[in-house]
Amino acid sequence: MSSRVLYLFACAAPPVLRVGEVVADAQRAGWDVCLGLTPTAARWLEDRLPVLERQCGYPVRSAYKLPGRPDVWPPATVALVAPATFNTVNQWALGITDKFVVGFAAEAIGKGIPLVTMPCVNAAYARHPQFARSLEVLRQAGVRVLYGEGGFVPNPPGEGRPGAFPWELALAAADEAAPARGVAG
């Protein structure tokens, strides 16, 4: 296993359907990947969860662990929240942590774990005034937000292009966010 651990937190937006390919791309780039899903994303991928767990080598998580239980994942080097839905972005910025994915991301701000997010919303959601405020809150908290030019650009409602989600930009940003590896000497 790699010494670089990527927590990939994916939400229920169409690009999540390609998450197995994204895990493979991250592993080829030298990441040890732990996959977390929102409850709806886990339901969408329910039939693929055993394969994803074998691919990652860790349980796929969509719920908080029980108190007193050991963590089943190694510590994160970087956390990537993508695709991040309208709901997840707003909950995260507002500190509403009923979902494991949002709770981890919110706490990671305080722990200093490097965070990257790439929202995936349609243009109608993007025009809601809370969305821009939430993105600004996350940026001010030190989260690298890949939205707009150089990140995700919203589509008109009903014209989603899940195959065009720029996963490669998200993985590159996670790589850039990782602390420099020590040089042996």
UniProtKB/TrEMBL annotation:
Pfam families: Flavoprotein
InterPro entries: Flavin_trans-like, Flavoprotein
Highest taxon above the source species: Bacteria
MF (Gene Ontology): catalytic activity
SUPFAM superfamilies linked to this entry: Homo-oligomeric flavin-containing Cys decarboxylases, HFCD
Protein name per Swiss-Prot or TrEMBL: Flavoprotein
Lineage: Bacteria, Bacillati, Actinomycetota, Actinomycetes, Kitasatosporales
